[in-house]
Specification:
By secondary structure, this protein is of the alpha/beta class. The chain contains five helices and seven strands; from the N terminus they run βαβαββαβαββα. It has a seven-stranded parallel β-sheet with strand order 4-3-2-1-5-6-7, with helices on both faces.
Amino acid sequence: MRPLRIGIIGSGVATAREADLARAAGATVARAGAIVVCGGMGGVMQAASEGAADEGGTVVGILPGSDAAGAASAVTIPIPTGLGEARNVLVARASEAVVAIAGEWGTLSEAAFCRKFGIPVIGLASRLPEGVTDETADGAVEAAERALELAAGRRARPA
């Protein structure tokens, strides 16, 4: 069976606390044998990538630009799209559940696409408006474990 794909989305510029949360979420996803999907750039995306990489995990970074060299250093598989912010829909579609950390307009658009597609969104230290996330978590491990559980549950349902 293919590994689960868990999106970790959030601000391109992160506070130290937000980066710590993202790193821990990425590490938790990797320890579970799942793939981290993100926008592949800085801030929350970079920290989640580092956390996953530290655990030997795989990170798919769906980049807004046309050059794979623009990816955060811990991204395992950079996918340059040349789509700018339109790549946010690809981040959502590539994920089976998502952890949203902090977040601004780009994160809001990714979360909105997830909601439209029926992909669960777990808020963690979220700045997103009420109703954008399906549920919230108090800690990074809890958020990642819940996303893994929801993703596995989606696979278990017949199509």
